[in-house]
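Case 692 in the screening queue. Each case pairs one protein sequence with one candidate compound; here the compound is beta-D-galactopyranuronic acid. For every case the pipeline is the same: read the inputs, emit a complex structure as tokens, and attach any notable structural observations.

Predict complex for case 692.
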Amino acid sequence: MKARLAAILFFLATGVALHASGQGDTLRILSIGNSFSVDAVEQNLHEIAADAGKVYIIGNMYIGGCSLERHYGNTLSGAGAYSYRKVDAEGERSVNKNFSIPEALADENWDVVTFQQSSPFSGLPASYEPWLGRLIAYAKPRVPEGVKFYFHQTWAYSEDSLNPAYSNYGCDQNLMYESIMAASQAAVERHGIGIIPCGTAIQNYRATWYRDNVNRDGYHLNLAGRYIAAATWYCTLSGQDVRGNAYRPEHLSIGQVKAAQESAWAAYQSPFEVTDFGMRTRDRNVNYDLALVPDFKLPDALLCSSGMKVRNSAEWEHLRRPELLALFEREMFGKVPRADIAMKSEVLESATGVLGGLADRKQVKLTFSSGRRQLEVDLLIYSPSGAEAPSPAFLGINFIGNHTVCADPSILLTPQENMQKRYGSYAGIDRNKDATRYGRGSMNSRWPLEMILRSGYALVTFYRGDIDPDYDDGFYNGIHPLFYADGQTYPERDEWGTIAAWSWGLSRVLDYLETDSSVDASKVAVVGHSRLGKAALWAGATDQRFAMVVSNGSGCGGAALSRRAYGETVEIINRSFPHWFCANFKKYGGKENKLPFDQHELLALIAPRPLYVASGSQDRWADPEGEFLSAKAASEVYRLYGFKGLSRAKMPGAGGAVTSDRMAYHLHEGKHDITPFDWERFISFADKFLKK
Ligand code: GTR
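Case 692 output:
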């Protein structure tokens, strides 16, 4: 409230009206900007205004990365250096190349003219002047009297942005945000102009349960980010509350739009500070009380949609299994679209007798190409040195890069120029390649290589971001664009999210392994921890060539039953990771009972192949008991094949395990992690099947 009052007083003191008044219901807006104004004004703004009965005519003068200084230089020279991009009264878009600032100022009877600093300098006040002052002074006599000038406050980069300019702010999002606030507030006070507080709106949204999911490449905005920015422009220019505006861009959920509108409106009230409007991450309702687990009935894995009950493995395979698989595809993980994708492999490096003579190493680049685009994935393979026959293998995706799996200095690093595309904000980036936190071998406790190799297994791994970066980039950087049909820019509601993309990658690696003599591709166990455990399960379900499947701490969307709604829920996971599942899955948030399946049926799709589900005793977020009960319920399908599975097992205590013919479960003592304790058990279970 105090901040709001301060904002109002500020506007009164500087004589700036709280909003721009246009001509009737039409407002003519000229932005002199760069790619950040492309993000803010070219989509959504016209449509938001239209929903409120207003007509916004928008001109955007664009030069990539253009600074205030350069804009001013262009006013003087009159250089036709801009791409002038216009949204007309009907919402039609056009682009005019080689446009100059004098031409743009004269193009319409503008009501509003905006300026902005290029993002690297946006928090460096000394870079603003004298240019901003000179730009305003230049424009004033060339536009109708009464034009409102605004400064478009841009946003801080994503937490782990790899934009080199991020180092101007110590690679610290908060510092960048605070710097932009100080610089933009001083600028608008100096000139008595208005502020369009997109930087604050974006930061408000980042503080909700949608978190840092607003960028597509670490600095430009993704679909959600663009909508937030446009909503902020709308609030500022109209002075109207955007909350409840009915225009919803394609691919954004109702929840995202609501949080975006709240973020924009709060920023309009308090342009220079983050507001808590009650959608904080910590507000989410997480149940850890067994007594509050809702009553539910699990769907019957054996009951076909026709009402027929499956009686044997043949009926399961021909009737029920395909139907279930299609349901999981359509409603949860998303289908992989049909497309002509070629895969090429190239051995980049190989050596024998490495790791003290224990292993042979091979690093292989897989290149996927469609007509238009290419994507590269770097595989790291260690196989037992001197093995007489191709080795059975564990195949798993790694979180942070191949170089983190083992301290072996010969592991190739992800090429620097691809890093931004490949790393998600969760990853924490290894900016200096060998930096300590995510440096070489930093994840070796998760990959006990020596144990794996000495037990006679190869380890095959690749980095998750090589297939698809783990953040909501609008499916812009990873494998998805290779599959787009002509004109498509986003997966359909039933098309794959990131987890299905990772699983697809696991299958392609298996294709490659079929051609590699160091590994026996018919004896590959696919393994994964946490989100990558979800991917391992889906890979095991969709690709029956995987001889064994291991999920560790896969939790919600993995092995854990959704209907228990214990720990992470469908609603929470879809908010925090909007890119993981297909759009159809979003409708089940808080409505688990409406799901046409539950996760025990995902596990059942792996039958009769050996399946290992593991949890951590302190990992309540992943609901260990829900994982166990799910495995137990899946046993019904194993029984069709004559295996008892875990049908009679009891949930073990911390440190305990239950193993039967084709299924195993254990509960390691401790937190959400994959440890040598887990691997020891996976290996001894695998020995029964993959060593024959
Ligand atoms: C958590 C997420 C979980 C789990 C985990 C991980 O933040 O809520 O579903 O997958 O990340 O992958 O470590």
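Case 692 observations:
- Residues 82 and 99 are 5 Å apart (CA to CA).
- Residues 530-531, 555-556, 568, 573, 576 surround beta-D-galactopyranuronic acid (CB under 6 Å).
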